[in-house]
Amino acid sequence: MPDTNTHTNKAATVETDNLPPHKSAIRRRSRDKKRLFADWRFRAYGIFGLSMAGCALLFLLVNIFSTGYSAFRQTTVTMNFNLDAEVLGVETNSSAEEKLDANVVAVIKKSLYASFPDVKKRKDKRKLFKLMSLGAELDLRDYIIENPESIGTNIEMTVPMSSDADQYYKAILRGEEIKSRLNDKQQQWLHALLDAEKITTRFNSDFFTNADSRYPELAGIGGAVIGTFYTLIICLLLAFPLGVGAAIYLEEFSRDSFITRIIEANINNLAAVPSVIFGLLGLAVILNMFDLPRSTPLVGGIVLALMTLPTIIIACRSAIKAVPPSIREGGLAMGASKVQVVFHHVMPAAMSGTLTGTIIGMAQALGETAPLLMIGMVAFIANAPSTPTDPATAIPVQIYLWAESAERGFVEKTAAAIMVIIIFLIAMNLLAILVRNRTRVINK
Question: What is the sign of the dihedral through the CA atoms of 119, 120, 121 and 127?
């Protein structure tokens, strides 16, 4: 079939050659201007697209970080507590089990009521006590257990406030319009504590050490981080050796047969399958057929390994293909066997791309939510798992749970958890770059 563009160019050249010299030069300049304008327009479209994508990403990051940074600070109040043995119901020589049942709530209420002697009604007293967090009771109980000699004395201690008080005070610090669930009296009591300089903020270490909680001020990602760690370790232990082994066999040892082509086509297709399908596979096969424990990192790791396996196989095969044939030929010429050439020469040279693909696949698994939801890791987990077979959740699932909560305090916790997972993803991608550069230097 004749080339239409070639004939058009030839016709334009002939037509130009038949024109007078000055008209021919004018027409050539006109064509050059059109071509240059087309090139400039194409570059402008590309720059515009990249600018829009960059602005959208910047807006997203600014919105997340501006919402979530306050979760790393916790509002606290400093109060004097009279650790009366009669009120607590324990003595200095009481056992640790008895001290766990100490009536610390009565001590906190007594201290609050002493700070606000005008509060007389029972309803107002309940509202006043709601300014305090459950964490105040936990901290005071832990202090009594660790310092039994303090029973019968007065101590000054800084304890956390409730989520509503926390959000109210942070809104004051940011100078924002205050939209709080606190009523007018609670706001007055809070301002009285502010005037007495008893309220401050501190670094919220509980956010990184605590597991999930129904109280926003006590909720943390510690349990989700441990669950994610167990899940990714199991995913790596299963997906990496299987993926590398499959890539080596398909690229170096398998014959070009009908079955091999079917396997390769399925591997490429599995890389594009939605992640929720792998979750359904885990639910139908791993949980129902093999009866493995539900909502555990063990099952989550297996499901994510199945999802990550095609990515590792494709990356490893691409790395093996990129190895120069001279390396194989040199090894065979020296008398090495096929297996020795593959494992002693080809794979060390391909390890850069293999590790890079593996880390990118693990980063993808880190951000997956749908497969974990399907296998039940969406359950409320109040304690961090100690083994891979304990019920657990993961960071993406924890973000999903907090995003659905109606409490305003969970909004900043959701954004803060997103910040944490973004930092993890950036770190894993940087690790992939460092590993790739490091292995390239070693191979050279």
Answer: positive
